[in-house]
RNA polymerase sigma factor (Actinomadura violacea), 320 residues
Amino acid sequence: MRTVTEAKAGDNDFGRLSEPFRRELLAYCYRMLGSVDEAEEVVQDVYLDAWRAYNAFEGRSSLRTWLYRIATRACFKALEKSRRRPLPADLGAPQTDLDAALGPQAREVPWLQPMPDFLFTAAPADPATVVVERQTMRLALVGALQQLPPRQRAVLILRDVLQWRSAEVAQLLEMTTAAVNSALQRARAQVPLSQDELTEPAEPRQRALLDRYVTAFETADVDQLVAVLTEDARWEMPPIVTWFEGRDTILAFLAKQMRVIGPTALVPASANGQPAFAVYARGRDGAHRPHALHVLTLTTEGACRIVAFHGSGLFPLFGL
């Protein structure tokens, strides 16, 4: 049994050695669970469990691997009692009848959550690392991962996102290397990571697109959006199940909505390595109140997907 001095020394060692892995573990758990709230809760429990067990840690693997093992088991346990987290496009076909009423707000659905960039990015020495992290956190990719069974999900993330070797994944998941490779092949067939390797516009073009987007919403001028959206763009509005596809359809829908909502104020944010805006609607009293959080996917042709998370629930998470 440790003495008080040894216990304090061990506690200090654990905190110093484990803290650098907190952000990447949070990103890993978020990819697994599709929820920032659940990921933060799991990581908190992981660190508590690891701290309690640190005295028994024999160093047969690295501390990082040990923490990932605890985190993976915690994610598997969390996924046993939770449903997959979709976006509206995962639940049905796009709406084509603009005269039809919007679908209900399905608040009972555990929707995929966006993640603020400041929770998973740090100030690494190598700027290329940031690019990799941001690309592998994209909202579309995290949503696609939710379609996989938990074990395939973990294998795909560990192998193709985090670049672990098959033998390392096999040891962590207590599988054979052959089983890992088989699970990886099945996961890749369903979620090819190359599907999210889009080419973003250069900085001047991106700035111009985002400026037009802000102007369009702040002045309720839908014509400004013509130069922003791609022809095959998607517009989603969780927790509303209805979604739209195609620039002309989206513009027609927004023309009606902007007349109802009126002028707004947009505050820039960043989620999942993508540009985002907090949208505040102005009430009759002149005060601006939280309306939605828009997360944009940009390509060289324009914005190909906008997920407008309606309501104020995400604003505190983003420090808004």
